[in-house]
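Recall the central idea of this unit: under ordinary conditions, the amino acid sequence of a chain determines the structure it adopts. In this exercise we apply that idea directly, starting from the sequence alone.
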Amino acid sequence: FILYGVDWVAPGVSVSGIYVGERTQAEVATALQSAWSTHPVLVESGQNQMTVAAAELGLVLDAEATAVLARQQGRTLASWQAFVANNGRFLLSPVWQYDQGRAVAGLETLATQLAVAPVEAQLLWQNGRFEALPGQPGQELDVAATEAALAQQAALILANGRFEPVMHFVP
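Accordingly, the structure predicted from this sequence is:
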C-alpha cells in the first residue's frame, strides 16, 4: 500500500478542532504550532477574568509528536474503528507536555496582574456626622499552590479552556 509510505495525513483528520488532513506531516506540525501559540485559557479569579496562552501556563504542545499521530490515522485498524465511531472523522487530542519552569514564570507574571491591594477602613465626616466605610481585603496569587493545581489539572484545563488560580486574602 502506497498510503503507508507517503508523508501525508489522510483526509478527515482534526486535532482539537483544527483540520489537518491532506497535508504533509511537516505542514501539520507547523500549523499546529502556530495555532497552539495562541491557544487560550480563561483564568478566572473572583470578578477578574483574563485570557492567557496555554504555553504561558506551562502547557506546551509537542507539535512533532502530534503530527506523527495525525499521520498514523487511516493506517491502523484502531484509527478506522474510531473513524467509524466519529461519523467519518479522525478526531485527535494534541500531544502536550507540562513545563514546570514555564508555568512558574507565567504564574509569577500573572500574580502581578491578579493582585488586588487591600483598602483600609475609613471614617468620613458627611452631613454633620461620621460615616464608617468598611475596609476591603486584598488578594494575591499563591504561586506554589496554583502551580501544584495546574500540574494536577492540566488535562482538564486544556479540555475546558478554563482555570481558577489559588488566591489568598490579604488583610
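DSSP finds five helices and twelve strands in the chain.
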